Amino acid sequence: MTGHLDDNCIFCKIIKGDIPSLKILETDLSYAFLDIGPVSEGHALIIPKYHSNRMDEVPDEYLADILPIAKKLARAMDIKDYNILQNNGKIAFQHVFHVHFHVIPKPNEKEGLVLTEWPRVEPSKEELAQVLERIVSNL
Asked: Gene3D superfamilies, from UniProt (predicted)?
């Protein structure tokens, strides 16, 4: 099963077999392959077989297929520490505009995903309550 694909998208071309990849596994809804520009050994990508720029636009059945694949990959890589990363939008560091999830092994402090800071803020309880109310009202 393959959902909506875009003829101009590099990941859609990989799904269709028009561009070669280092395929790890494939299901009816997803495709997993090694990243050709890895940040650590085994760095893999999982993409839905449905073209969309943002995760919130992908049908749920495709998304439900992805995390079990991420789990299988982490186990197959026999890694203890790893990151699952998914970016939406240019300012959120998305570079290929087809939803994709990274499985990034973290073998040591220097390899894998490296965050130099986590810009934590400390909102008041009232501010948090307002954010909570806004989110819950939009569900």
From this structure: HIT-like
